[in-house]
Fold this sequence. Notes:
Layout: H1 16-38, H2 43-79, H3 81-100
Helix pairs in contact: 1-2, 2-3
Amino acid sequence: xxxxxxxxxxxxxxxxxxxxxxxRRIEGQARGLQRMVEDEKYCIDILTQVSAMTKALQSVxxxxxxxxxxxxxxxxxxxxxxxAEQKLREASEAIARLVRS
Length: 101
């Protein structure tokens, strides 16, 4: 287990099947993009699909971030101490990565 993992159940567990379904759909989009390039489709059409896939990934990321904030961060903040500081720092860093992407 890495230093950023929690020993308890993760906040997204109750929606795990939804996340897996969305990620499988994104995986299909990635395969579709590969086929488009292999078939030498029009670049604007490929870019449109890249944009759709990017938005789908961002949606998953924002959902996971929301779950982390409402479950992991809130729980750690209630407990206080160094774990609370760590969870807040992790959330801040995750937000920064999402903003940069």
